[in-house]
Structures are given as structure tokens and as C-alpha cells.
Amino acid sequence: MHRIEVLSPAGDMERFTAAVDFGADAVYLGRKNFGMRSSPQNFTFEQLSDAVRTAHAKGVKVYLTCNTLPRNSEIPLFEQFISEACAAQVDALIVADIGILSLVKKYAPDMEIHISTQTGIVNYVTARELYNMGAKRIVLARELSLEEIAEIRAKTSPDLDIEAFVHGAMCVSFSGRCLLSQYLVNRDANRGECAQPCRWGYHLMEEKRPGEFFPVFEDEKGTYILNAKDMCMIDFIDKLAEAGITSLKIEGRAKSAYYVAVVTNAYRMAVDEYYKNPDSFTLPQWIHDEVFKVSHRKYCTGFFFGTPQESQYYENSGYIRNYDVVAVVEKCENGTVYCTQRNRFFSGDRLEILAPKCEPVTITPDKLFDENGEEIQSANHAMMKFSFKSDKTFPAGAVIRHEVSGK
Fold first, then answer.
1. What is the pLDDT of residues 294-336, one digit of tens each?
2. What number of H helices and E strands is found in the chain?
3. Which residues of 106-131 are buried (b: 16+ CB within 10 A; e: fewer)?
4. Contact by Cβ (8 Å): 78, 100
5. By C-alpha distance, which of 261, 274, 194 is closest to 233?
6. Over the Cα atoms of the chain, what is R_g?
7. By the 8 A CB rule, do 240 and 164 touch?
8. CB atoms < 10 A from the CB of 273, how many?
């Protein structure tokens, strides 16, 4: 049996570092083209090569996305894309298009192939056929229940990996194949440019009464009828394992490094807790609480337990954010914690420091010092260097956060 993989997103090098440092077994990322997220900075060839070297040195794998639905004009660019992927020594390519699959096999016959969720895999026959075509892994459609996943696992080769999204934003279209964005604002969701019109507010207008709007839901502000809650399966690692899922995928290549660090750490710790006692898994409360300390929509469990109940959020499309990351630890020396600021905070504020594979530690620094050692009342300049005294030590890269009320 494979040990369950924690698979984290990375939209740039900062987020990549957060994923690796906070316990990801593998990271998925994209280049400037052929990826389903065009809004993040993504990776140049040089950055990709550096990322792979860094990951491999720490025993972490790197999966490169090429899961858009490319048009005719993009096909001639693909040979170089594959050549550079091989030169960078990525561990696998994530593809959605059958033609692209054939080109990967042609240009890089030894490359491991993962079939994207964009393909819409919902049954074992499709899974088998893709395996026969050379796929090492399938990323299942998000519309499947645990029972359906277990049947796919039982009726496919044990050499075929099964990956499933377990945390992050949900798309109301089938496995991300959506036309709304291109119809409304000419941004193609199937080429990484989604404007997320499913998150917009809508009214109903009767054709003979133009300009007179009627709410679809009982709210004078209209309705967010297409706005899905975020998925969260942190409490059900044992159920995911029992269904035969190989890799737990965290959505969020466009999310912040703080989000990647916190959510990766939570799933890393949850999986590790599961393996301590698989027969009687109980998630510690602090791990459950961690996923609520990042910016998120209200959570649901998607389709894993059957038809979703209360999985849409009609009040607004906004996020819940109760914590701000205020600094990142640079080093600890001689009882002093040296940091770089991210958001303003004050001496005497109650803070939490989250280090990789650790429960957060609460501290209240009564004095702050600037980089010259002068006492300051607040860390209020962007990216300023500062320090405080502590009898505890923390590794470089640990994040410092502050609870913020009213957000």
C-alpha cells in the first residue's frame, strides 16, 4: 500500500518554498503557458529547474501542469515545453487533452503522466483505459462520492495512482469545464483565465420590465446562486484513505504563501496522525482549527458523502479572514527572534508562531526592536526588519500571525 501523499500548490517560488518547508510530499506548479492558472506569476524555466533541485534535495516531487485545452496555434509550442520539462527533471506532467497526452508520449516517452481533473474521470472504465494509454495517475472529477472512488480503486490496477482534491475552492461546472467566463468577459476558464463569474451576485429581470430587478433569493442585494462553499476534508483523512485515494490535493495556486504553509501543515499533521493509529483515527482539535486560520469561504465536504447538502453560500462571495500574517521568522540567535514584517502589529499584541510540523505557539512580545536595536512600539513599515526576545526558538520560515476581529 502506498503511503498517502500530501500534494500542495505553488504559484511562485515563495509559495513553493512554503509548500516544501511545511511538509508537502509533492508540489504541483505551472509555467507561463499550458497551465490552468494564469493569474499567479508561475515559473520560468530557470525557476522551475531551481525548484526541482530544491525539492529533490528534500525528497519532494514536482508535478508540472499542462492541463489546458490548447488551441491549434499553441500546439507547435508544446515540443519545447516538453523538452524544458525533461531538462528540469520534473517528476510528472499533468495533462487533460488526449492530443497532448500523445505528444508527451512522443517527445518524452519516459515521463510520468497524470491525467487532470479537467478530463472528468468518473468511472473505472475510463480510469482503466487511461492507464492502458500510459497514465500513472488519474486526478478524479470532484463530483464523486467516497463510495464511487472506492469502486474505481477496486476495479483498476493497483499501479494506478488515484488523486483527489480534498481542500479549497469548488467550481460549479463539471470538473472545472466552464463557459461562463468566456461568454461574459472573454476569459477562457479552460485556458487558465477564469474571471469566476460564479462568485458574482445576480438578479432576475423580466423582459417586459427592463431595469426592474427581482431577487432570485430572499435578499434585496440579489443572490450568489452559483457561489459554492470551499471544500474541506481535514476531519476525514481516514475515510479518504479507506476509499483508496493515493494523493490528497490542496487547491490554491493563486493563494498566498501563508495559505499554502498553513493548509499544507494541517494536512501533513493530519496524515501523520492517521498513520499513528489508522484503526482509531481522531484528529486533534488544533489541527482542525488550523484550516480556519486562513482566508476561506465557508466549508463543506463537497460530493464525498453523496449529494452536497448546504454547499452553496448565498449571502455574498467574500472570504472569512480572522488572522493576518504579520511577519516571517528569519533566524533565532541568543534568545532573540529576527523577523521580516508582513503586516502592521504592536508590542504587546498576542501572536501565534507556526513552525513546520508543529502546533502553533502563542507569544506576547512586550518589546519590539528595529534592525538597529532601537525599541519600537510597532512593526509598521512594509518588509521592515525587526526582532524581539524569546525563550523559545523557531526555524527560519516560521510564520507569525495575529488574530483580527471583525474580518
1. 988 889 898 899 877 665 554 555 678 899 999 999 999 999 9
2. 10, 22
3. ebbeebbbbbbbbbbbbebebbbebb
4. yes
5. 274
6. 23
7. yes
8. 17
| β-bridge pairing 247-250 and 5-10 | parallel
Residue 258 pLDDT > 50, yes or no? yes
Confidence label for 79 from pLDDT (cuts 50, 70 and 90): very high
pLDDT, tens digit (0-9, with 9 covering 90-100), for 161-192: 999 999 998 776 655 556 666 656 767 666 56
Which percentage of the chain shows pLDDT scores above 70? 85
Residue 92: CB atoms within 10 A of its CB come to 21
Query: Would you state the cell numbers that stand for residue 126, as one nine-digit string?
Result: 475510463
Does residue 346 sit in helix, strand or coil? strand
Q: For residue 301, what is the DSSP state?
A: -
In the chain, the amino acid numbered 302 is G
Q: What is the rounded CA–CA span in Å between residue 370 and residue 387? A: 6
From residue 302, give the alpha-carbon distance in Å to each of 179, 201, 267: 21, 22, 17
CA distance 353 to 365: 12
H-helix or E-strand spanning residue 213? strand 213-214
User: Which pLDDT does position 226 carry in this prediction?
Assistant: 64
Residue 208, pLDDT score: 76
Q: Which helix (H) or strand (E) is 45 found in, with range?
A: helix 45-57
Residue linked to cell 488526449 = 98
Of 26, 300, 324, the residue nearest 161 (C-alpha)? 26
With a pLDDT cut of 90, the percent of the chain lying above it is 71
Q: Dihedral (C-alpha) 336, 342, 344, 347: value to the nearest 10 degrees?
A: -10
DSSP 83-108: HHHHHHT-SEEEE--HHHHHHHHHH-
Which residues have CB under 8 Å from 342's CB, separation 6+? 324, 325, 326, 327, 328, 383
CA proximity to 264, closest of 237, 291, 296: 291
Residue 394 DSSP symbol? -
Find the helix or strand (DSSP H, E) in which 48 lies: helix 45-57
Q: What is the pLDDT of residues 209-235, one digit of tens each?
A: 777 765 555 455 555 566 678 899 999
Q: Which residues contact 312 (CB under 8 A, 6 or more apart)?
A: 224, 225, 226, 227, 228, 229
Per-residue pLDDT band at 407 (split at 50, 70, 90): very low
pTM of the full predicted structure?
0.87
**Alpha-carbon distances of 203 from 208, 210, 213, 247, rounded to whole Å:** 15, 12, 6, 40
All three cell numbers of 209: 420590465
